[in-house]
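Working notes for the structural subgroup meeting. M.R. asked for a predicted model of this chain before we commit to crystallization trials. I am recording the input and output together here so anyone reviewing the notebook later can reproduce the run.

Input as submitted:
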Amino acid sequence: MLERNKEQAIASIDLGTYGCRMIVGVTAKNNSHYKIISRFSQTVKLIVDNAGDLSSASRSRLMRSLQQCHSILCKFNITNYRCVGTAACRAVQDRGNFIKSIKDETGINLEIITPREEIELAALGAMSVFAKNTKVKFIFDIGGGSTEFGIFVYTNHAPKCVAFASLPYGILTLNPFATPDSKKTFSDHVRTVVQDMFSGCSVAHNINSVQAITTSGPLATIVTLNEGLTGYHGPNIHGLNMQYYTILHWIDKIEQMGSEEFSRAYGISNAMMSGLSILRGIVEATKIPIYISNTGVRDGILKSLFTERRLNQ
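Returned structure, recorded in token form:
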């Protein structure tokens, strides 16, 4: 069955600052939908210095991951794919040579996207958790090197971005061991950015009629803990929502214990703990339930490729 559908396979690669993720989908015979047949995920932790140069260790991790992605493309005979780079790739000074070196060493064509394109793809990928009775969506993604926010209106079976903001901070660029005062200062800044975003968006003035969704690891971690789970349970928590006061309870608990001690006790990376200051600011600004989506940018890419294929046939 798989061999017969090889030529119909499509793939998406999300080269993020923290991880490289890939999914492969196969379209059905009637071209009405697609199903995921292969997944790949690997931590890359891309560190770019102030001069815009990628560290040698980061470069090695990146190339190894994309070489594996290329092997998967070859395995399924895929020519219809899209590979996007986000915050760390945007920070690279010589993008032309960077993209060329990736093509030469891995065979992958990399496209570096803007922060707005990133949140638009995340929104497209998170559509499976959209509540039908809520037209306006607030979607945010706390990534490895940046955080994107978007207010979307869901019309004609697709999300349209009507307000957008981005901060150059993520789980790899914040200090998990920062002092309480510095964490509060940062959370206050995030809260102001989100509040300004809502106040300037006419369709989102009634915040209680907005559905908030995140594709972010920090909230996924809290939801996992709240459900009494250990390890990775992305598919199991997909679509769950949590009240803002419960989220704040967990953030307070983690910060009181200390990120390092909490990380050891619950087996959670310090990197994920770094995003709590961002999450606190968002939650304090909105004070509404937040839904967790296990699907994001990579799923949005695949969905857009599938839609494009349907329109061209």
